[in-house]
Amino acid sequence: MKFRKTNHMSEADHELVTQAVHQAEQLTDGEIVTIVAATSDDYRETAYIWASISALITLTFFALFSDFFAALIARFYGEWNHQLSNAEYLVIAGTAALIKWVAVWLILHWQPLRLLLTLPHAKKNAVRARAIDLFRVGTESRTIGRTGVLIYLSMKEHRAEIVADKAIADQVAPEIWGDAMLALIEQTKNGQPGAGMAGAVFQVGQVLNEYFPKSDGNPNELPDRLIEL
After folding, report:
1. Last residue of a domain, one of 110, 130, 160
2. Is 6 part of a structural domain of the chain?
3. Which key words tag this protein in UniProt (predicted)?
4. Which pTM value belongs to this model?
């Protein structure tokens, strides 16, 4: 899946987050990876779903108000007493439903509207799935002690995820990351995603310092820089 550059993070944001990761990792064997994306999915299924719903509603109206539509069609033909056969009526109703389907599908090519009409649980699942995919590609099992953590922010969905490697997940309950998530989301809502990411890095670093304090000779195995997709 391809993503456009987000452009939500300034150079100062990149520097702030990179420094936050570097400082946090001075106290722990854990490795923190930060990624921000514009969106986690294109949600094309949303367009198909709403187009299908609109077509079904059209057919339902034709079925419930057949006399009204039959009279309307007769007026269109210029014949007040024009009698439609069942086949003719079905063809007209089906054509109207098809036109409605195509119209809604085309309208929902506009991503902001498509994203607005996507159900919250679908956004949540998409962000989680994307975070896990990115974690598996760039973080999972990439450290000696399997102590990598991914902090992922998806801007347009207004959602974030924290995914931890096995050694961390075995010891740290998911709710422990609550403060980090709160710092990230609140600052991002206020228009400061860089500060939010840096705050989340600090909170994650505090947890990692508690469970995986710095040991001698532990190398820096994952990039400190903020990654934009």
Report:
1. 110
2. no
3. Membrane, Transmembrane, Transmembrane helix
4. 0.83
